[in-house]
Design a protein that fits this description.
Layout: H1 19-26, H2 29-46, H3 53-72
Helix pairs in contact: 2-3
Length: 74
């Protein structure tokens, strides 16, 4: 699913770095987890009203990032 609206959308690659990588690099681990949680809440709250399964896929992607971040912490 590369290059689609869930994974690596082309419009998020401007400047040679994916926007999500830049965001993660600038945030503390706690801030990154909050960012992921907020996006999970956003996408699961709106999926019936906006993009259906695509929003659930986006929520799932953020949930996986959140789980990975929690597992990385000492």
């Amino acid at each position: 699913m590369e290059g689609n609206s869930v994974n690596s959308p082309n419009h998020y690659m401007a400047g040679g770095i994916e926007t999500i990588d830049y965001i993660k690099a600038k945030l503390t681990p706690e801030q990154w987890q909050g960012y992921c949680l907020g996006n999970i809440m956003k996408y699961t709250s709106r999926y019936l009203l906006k993009n259906g399964a695509e929003d659930l896929q986006k929520a799932d992607k953020h949930l996986k990032w959140l789980i990975a971040s929690v597992n990385e912490r000492p």
